[in-house]
Amino acid sequence: MTAKTRFRGSFTALVTPFKNGSLDEKAFRELVDWQISEGTAGLVPVGTTGESPTLSHAEHKQVVEWCVDQSKGRAPVVAGAGSNATHEAIDFSRHAEEAGADAVLIVTPYYNKPTQEGLYQHFKAINDAIGIPILIYNIPARSVIDMSVDTMRRLFELKNIAGVKDATANVVRVSQQRAALGADFNQMSGEDATALGFMAHGGHGCISVTANVAPRLCAEFQNACLKGDYSTALKLQDKLMPLHQNLFIETNPAPAKYALSLLGKCADTVRLPMVTLEEKSKQQVRAAMVHAGLIN
């Protein structure tokens, strides 16, 4: 089987900037330009980091359209299109395809806890409804269910299922998935802190939260890994590790938005039930940014 996607390197799980309670189009478009100019290899709008649960469907679609329009083909766009209602995920996926997205990212359905067969049927229905590649987003910590390697293997036989954003933080999975699905199954880490091990096990890149704030360092880190230069990658990991940890000191994306506010990229506003950072958390995010050389 030939690869359905060859996504490689640092992809950014983009935040969604807000202003006066609404989407901040100017800040979002400028963020896209900055990301590309700093070496980011791909853009992932309206995932968890993009606060998709608190966006209206119209806002969700608007952000995807802005991302595709602003990137102008300079970097692939993998649009968040997941839902725990299959018909809703199909609607988001069809819209993403029409808007010109290169692929969609579909999270395992959260809260309603489908079986492995339910997961298979959910992804198959989306596969059958669109004509662009699908990345499975496996994040048991948020969605409660864990897609098995066997279910992934079944899904990979379908025409559009192309790979996984693996946020299990279990690097053994990469080798297990490689063994079961082969090297063409596009494996992207969904967890910054363990991306070094993920890549060494045969991963292809990372869909990163930290890359919102440190896009150039994350791109350099991924490029070193892809070249097999793990001594350089380890140095960059040491530089980035406090950020990887402290950007999750409170619920993502509040810390990332605070960090971006320090860089003058967007306000630190989040939507309820997310709240802005407590003072002591702000100090730790700031210290991590100093450690990474992003601010003085």
Please provide a written account of the structure.
The protein is of the alpha/beta class. α3 links the parallel β5 and β6 (103-107). The mean pLDDT is 98. It has helices at residues 25-37, 57-71, 86-99, 116-129, 140-143, 149-156, 172-181, 195-200, 215-226, 230-246, 254-262, 279-291; strands at residues 9-13, 18-19, 22-23, 42-44, 78-80, 103-107, 134-138, 161-166, 186-189, 205-208. The N and C termini lie far apart (49 Å). α4 runs parallel beside α6 and α10 runs antiparallel to α12. The chain contains 12 helices and 10 strands.
Main features:
12 helices, two-stranded antiparallel ribbon, 13% strand, 10 strands, alpha/beta, 8-stranded parallel β-sheet, 296 residues, globular, single chain
Distance between the termini: 49 Å
Number of strands: 10
Low-confidence stretches: none
- Estimate the mean pLDDT confidence: 98
SS strand fraction: 5-15%
Shape: globular
Topology as a string of helices (H) and strands (E): EEEHEHEHEHEHHEHEHEHHHH
Helical run tally: 12
How would you characterize the largest beta sheet? 8 strands, parallel
Major sheet: arrangement of strands: 4-1-10-9-8-7-6-5
What are the SSEs and their pairings?
Elements lengths: L8 E5 L4 E2 L2 E2 L1 H13 L4 E3 L12 H15 L6 E3 L5 H14 L3 E5 L8 H14 L4 E5 L1 H4 L5 H8 L4 E6 L5 H10 L4 E4 L5 H6 L4 E4 L6 H12 L3 H17 L7 H9 L16 H13 L5
Parallel strand pairs: 1-4, 1-10, 5-6, 6-7, 7-8, 8-9, 9-10
Antiparallel strand pairs: 2-3
Helix pairs in contact: 1-2, 2-3, 3-4, 4-6, 6-7, 9-10, 10-12, 11-12
